[in-house]
């Protein structure tokens, strides 16, 4: 290579590094730049096995009445071969492909074509055009918050169909559950692959891209921070909320309809699961503007983890309780049902109140009251890639004085309640609490690592003031 070309290349590399902040002391917050062997091993494991895990759970219900051990035993004892199980698995059908395409297209239409009207008549609801947090490159994105309206329109149409239009049976989702799984996988892989290619060739904001140099890590954790098509189609906001979370409540309703069709009644456990998860979903859309300030939007890049996770993992594994109850209709005694309800509502209250305290505190820049008192906090600062210094505050009173992630604790209590609604006959419905415990503990550590690089010494002062993560006195 000619010397002048080498010099030019070196300059380009230097410029690229500065832009992405790799070697700068500032702007390191976000996902890892250097991939350690453990992260790489976990990523390879998930890329290979996560789709199989989803298939295993759904197949266990369809072929083994939700027993997780029976398929394994069958295979180990030679009673069945993999081919036997696979041959009994429904394949992709034109009908499922049609339903899924229509579903995603309808959600894109609701997202892109109907500006929010809910904030005009619902007091306290924050919708319409809202701003996200400052990205590491110093960009502030605008979002059209209209998820609540998409959820309402979708559910009004669902109930209109179930009550008097009768275009399709409310059991349609259950009846096509495995063929729809193949469609969700196709979309999940397509969108993640597209996001990777886009990150390389036509990123929305080049300064917010990260390249670790490891193909698998970049594919899994994403390159682009906020990939968009046009001004408004934001991949993260769309794929996380719809089609995944709008679908969550419809899937549960379809399972309830199937339970009634098969067993002649909807059990109190199925009602509890529908109500508690319905509250969680509705809360998500009511607070969609707040969601712009959560880790998913503020810190994670968009790759397979979010793209495939939102399309497949979330709708298929977060709804396992409802699916289980179709195969095992559990009628709980009053004390058990009440216990589940109280735990679920208490968990929800803690989850919401904790998130609300932080949101209020940050929105008002500390000029608010937490539990009737002026908030206590620690002043902190950080620097974005372009060298701009920002000031912020970390709340140390209210639930945030009890533990650094008490919102996760509330979430875990709610998650446990969904599982307990299914009784104690099988472990399959308890997958959710196990998964959430791992997810949220890992998230604590990941978030703290990021905050520590973002705030440095200020973060150390904060952890000294609030020493526990999830449970005061324990962890
Ligand atoms: P948080 O809402 O707790 O956000 C963490 C961020 O808040 C930190 O990175 C930091 O960001 C800021 N922060 C941390 N401590 C303080 C403090 N003391 N005062 C003010 N700001 C602080 O976490 P998540 O985004 O992970 O979760 C949001 C909610 O979503 C949680 O309740 C969680 O349970 C739920 N969740 C549910 C999932 C599910 O699958 N069901 C998955 C993930 C989350 P900054 O850089 O702005 O300082």
UniProtKB/TrEMBL annotation:
GO terms for biological process: brassinosteroid biosynthetic process; cholesterol biosynthetic process. Keywords: Cholesterol biosynthesis, Cholesterol metabolism, Endoplasmic reticulum, Lipid biosynthesis, Lipid metabolism, Membrane, NADP, Oxidoreductase, Steroid biosynthesis, Steroid metabolism, Sterol biosynthesis, Sterol metabolism, Transmembrane, Transmembrane helix. It holds the Pfam family ERG4_ERG24. The chain crosses the membrane at residues 37-58, 92-114, 148-168, 180-201, 237-257, 269-286, 306-326, 333-351, 415-440. It is found in: Endoplasmic reticulum membrane. Its main location: endoplasmic reticulum. Pathway: Steroid biosynthesis; cholesterol biosynthesis. It is a multi-pass membrane protein. It catalyses: cholesterol + NADP(+) = 7-dehydrocholesterol + NADPH + H(+); 7-dehydrodesmosterol + NADPH + H(+) = desmosterol + NADP(+). GO terms for cellular component: endoplasmic reticulum membrane. GO terms for molecular function: 7-dehydrocholesterol reductase activity. Gene3D superfamilies: 1.20.120.1630. Its EC number is 1.3.1.21. Catalyzes the last step of the cholesterol synthesis pathway, which transforms cholesta-5,7-dien-3beta-ol (7-dehydrocholesterol,7-DHC) into cholesterol by reducing the C7-C8 double bond of its sterol core. Can also metabolize cholesta-5,7,24-trien-3beta-ol (7-dehydrodemosterol, 7-DHD) to desmosterol, which is then metabolized by the Delta(24)-sterol reductase (DHCR24) to cholesterol. Belongs to the ERG4/ERG24 family. This is 7-dehydrocholesterol reductase. It comes from Leiothrix lutea (Red-billed leiothrix).
């Amino acid at each position: 290579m000619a010397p002048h070309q080498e010099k030019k290349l070196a300059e380009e590399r230097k410029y690229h590094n500065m832009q992405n902040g790799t070697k700068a002391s500032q702007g390191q917050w976000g996902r890892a730049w250097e991939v350690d062997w453990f992260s790489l091993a976990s990523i390879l494991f998930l890329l290979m096995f996560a789709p199989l895990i989803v298939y295993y759970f759904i197949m266990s219900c369809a072929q083994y009445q939700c027993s997780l051990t029976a398929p394994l035993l069958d295979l180990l004892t030679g009673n069945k071969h993999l081919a036997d199980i696979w041959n009994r698995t429904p394949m992709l059908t034109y009908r499922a492909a049609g339903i899924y395409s229509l579903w995603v297209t309808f959600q894109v239409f609701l997202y892109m074509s109907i500006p929010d009207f809910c904030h005009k008549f619902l007091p306290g609801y924050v919708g319409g055009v809202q701003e996200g947090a400052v990205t590491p490159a110093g960009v502030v994105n605008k979002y059209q918050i209209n998820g609540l309206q998409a959820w309402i329109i979708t559910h009004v149409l669902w109930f209109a169909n179930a009550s008097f239009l009768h275009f399709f049976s409310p059991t349609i989702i259950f009846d096509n559950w495995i063929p729809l799984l193949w469609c969700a996988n196709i979309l999940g892989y397509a969108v993640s692959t597209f996001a990777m290619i886009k990150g390389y060739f036509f990123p929305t904001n080049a300064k917010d891209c990260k390249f670790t140099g490891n193909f698998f890590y970049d594919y899994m954790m994403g390159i682009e921070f906020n990939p968009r098509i046009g001004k408004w189609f934001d991949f993260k906001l769309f794929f996380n909320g719809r089609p995944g979370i709008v679908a969550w409540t419809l899937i549960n309703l379809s399972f309830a309809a199937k339970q009634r069709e098969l067993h002649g009644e909807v059990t109190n456990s199925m009602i509890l699961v529908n109500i508690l998860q319905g509250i969680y979903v509705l809360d998500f859309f009511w607070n969609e503007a707040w969601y712009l300030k959560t880790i998913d939007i503020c810190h994670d890049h968009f790759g397979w983890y979010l793209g495939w996770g939102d399309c497949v993992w979330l709708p298929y594994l977060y709804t396992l309780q409802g699916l289980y109850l179709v195969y095992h209709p559990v009628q709980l005694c009053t004390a058990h049902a009440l216990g589940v309800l109280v735990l679920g509502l208490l968990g929800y209250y803690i989850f919401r109140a904790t998130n609300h305290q932080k949101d209020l505190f940050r929105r008002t820049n500390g000029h608010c009251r937490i539990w009737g008192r002026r908030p206590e906090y620690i002043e902190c600062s950080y620097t974005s890639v372009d060298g701009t210094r920002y000031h912020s505050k970390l709340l140390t009173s209210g639930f945030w004085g009890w533990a650094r992630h008490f919102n996760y604790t509330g979430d875990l209590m709610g998650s446990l309640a969904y599982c307990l609604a299914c009784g104690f006959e099988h472990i399959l419905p308890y997958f959710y609490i196990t998964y959430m415990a791992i997810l949220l503990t890992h998230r604590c550590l990941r978030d703290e690592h990021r905050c520590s690089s973002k705030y440095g010494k200020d973060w150390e002062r904060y952890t000294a003031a609030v020493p526990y993560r999830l449970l005061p006195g324990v962890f």
